[in-house]
Amino acid sequence: MASVRTISLFSGCGGSDLALANLGFQIVWANDISEIACDTYRDNIGSTIEYGNISDFEKFPAADFLIGCYPCQGFTQGGRRDSSEFDRILRFVSPQAFVVENVNGMLYGQNTQLLENQVFRYRLAGYCVKWQVLNAQDYGVPQNRNRVFIVGIRSDLDFQYKFPIAQFGPKTGRKFRSQKSALHGLPEWPVGEFNDEPFHWYYLSRNRRRSWDRPSPCIVGHWRHVPLHPMSPPLKRIHTDKWMFSRKGRARRLSYRECAALQGFPRSFVWRRGSIRQRFQMIGNAVPPPLFESVVRNLKELL
Question: Which of 72, 128, 218, 259 is the catalytic position?
Fold first, then answer.
């Protein structure tokens, strides 16, 4: 599959593109608006990424495959602008297929209009479009993380895409990957790699801890809100939106390296750019590579 020429938009630090590299795809051009994310991408994946606002670019190389992982911050003007930019480049390049990833908040309330609008415009661009919510823990990621995937196949191609079936979980006979499997061997108290601020009321408004033998809660991009490390004492519910530690003991949030492991990044991935807070943001906003690899693998017969 090394001949699959691919363009990656909103690439971030490269979670999706790492999956493509594992599959042998050729990334001919990538872009992100974060300079730190672009530098991290170059450290790990390659030099094909260009820093800048995607709206400032007018020409793109020929490609068979287009991917885009829109920023997760809200679905108002920013979300519409980013999806419009993806639509613009989709029409310019006319690849055989595309994949879009975003948060599953698109399925609720007024946000559904943005999802419906995207699907409608991509169909107008000449693509057969399907979408589905996938949970990363079903595909070997030790984290409970739901995301929407939109897959489009150019209408002149005789191919029916099918989303991947779950590989882990109760219906498969294989247990979800645990936090222990991902964090084994990492230091217990990595000073300087986690947020050591006190646990404020909002942080303790929900249960942010899971035991060692379970997947982690969703890894987010804000370092104040990442889950508790499983070494922390269990939390008990006091009343609505209030949790407290059930016993004394050392407690801390996950470190950025631990968050990366729970996202499915290999330990060989280099995190040396930006501040600690910015590393948390890059990691939390990334697509878990094993999940993206599962989605794209089902396109191999076409590409």
Answer: 72
